[in-house]
Write a structure and sequence with these properties.
about 170 residues; alpha/beta; Collagenase (Catalytic Domain); five-stranded mixed β-sheet; three-stranded mixed β-sheet; globular; binds zinc ion
Length: about 170
């Protein structure tokens, strides 16, 4: 079975990790190792934005963990790329590495009460979306497909955790 590294980079919702591992096994046939990487976070931080640079974190994960088939980084830090105010995540198209930020997936971020079920569902969707890119999938027009692009949480909440039929076939 292909192996995935799950890198926990200041990711504090450890209770939901079993659900994430289970999802990787069921959706992508991946067995995962949990890793807390030794990383000097100052190199990835932008003081003016108070955010972390997702592309650089992906590079870090590839430099150190390329012996894995897939590398998924999870973080509670807010992520950015220079042209956008924030990103929920980033991935290499047809590559190994993906990163997902939980920062803006917590209902509390929007001043709403804690809702673990909603949070987990959002996180699983974003993980499936970013990993989908690593399997070569591009954005899908089907608004219920997990590969539909989302620029805010409402758009994440509309879509399903699953791939549409056509995206699923492309992964195989
Ligand atoms: Zn995408
Ligand atoms: Zn699709």
């Amino acid at each position: 079975m292909p192996q995935a590294a799950i890198l926990l980079i200041n990711f504090n919702s450890s209770l939901i990790i079993p659900a994430i591992e289970d999802n990787l096994k069921k959706k992508f046939n991946l067995i995962s190792d949990l890793i807390i990487p030794d990383i000097d976070l100052r190199n990835y931080y932008s003081e003016s934005r108070d955010q972390y640079y997702s592309t650089k974190l992906i590079e870090f994960s590839l430099n150190k963990y390329s012996h894995y088939d897939k590398i998924l980084s999870l973080t509670d830090f807010d992520l950015y790329v220079p042209v956008l105010t924030f990103v929920f995540g980033e991935a290499q198209l047809n590559g190994k590495a993906a990163i997902v930020s939980a920062h803006r997936l917590y209902p509390e971020f929007y001043g709403l009460p804690q809702n673990d079920e909603l949070f987990i569902s959002r996180l699983i969707k974003e993980i499936n979306h970013e990993l989908g890119h690593t399997y070569g999938l591009r954005h899908c027009l089907d608004f219920q497909c997990v590969m539909h692009s989302s620029s805010n949480v409402d758009e994440i909440d509309i879509k399903a955790e699953d791939f549409c039929e056509s995206c699923r076939l492309k992964i195989r």
